[in-house]
Amino acid sequence: MTRRITLALAALLAAAPVIATALPAAAQSPSCTRPDRPKLPPGKKTKGPEMEAAEKKVADYTTKMTAYLKCLDKAKTDAMTEHKGVIEEWNGVIDAYKKNPG
Asked: By C-alpha distance, which of 41, 40, 33 is closest to 65?
């Protein structure tokens, strides 16, 4: 790992507790909403209409879970992009400091 990245990571790790407590909870987590797990019938003594209703619940759950997972992927990509930008900006700060320390 280069010295720049090491310094950047050290700064980020040092600041993480302060940042985490300074931000409201909503800003710390993505707006992705995990769907509730459907309650499934036992199977052995379940009648046809109950199975049909359960099938619809599972289909709805699957649709919502797929959307949730896509949301998490986007949130992860956004976070990685932001992190990369912070590292690049920090490297610029280091370069500027080295040219005119102190």
From this structure: 33
Contact in structure between 37 and 57 (CB atoms under 8 Å) = no
| C-alpha span between 13 and 72 (Å, rounded) | 23
Structural domain for 83, as ranges: 3-99
> How many structural domains is the chain composed of?
1
pTM reported for the whole predicted model: 0.61
Distance of CA 10 to the CA centre of its chain: 21
The DSSP element (H or E) to which 101 belongs, if any, is none
Residue 13: both structure tokens together = 């790790």
Digit-coded pLDDT (tens) for 18-70: 555 544 444 455 699 999 999 999 988 899 999 999 999 999 999 999 999 99
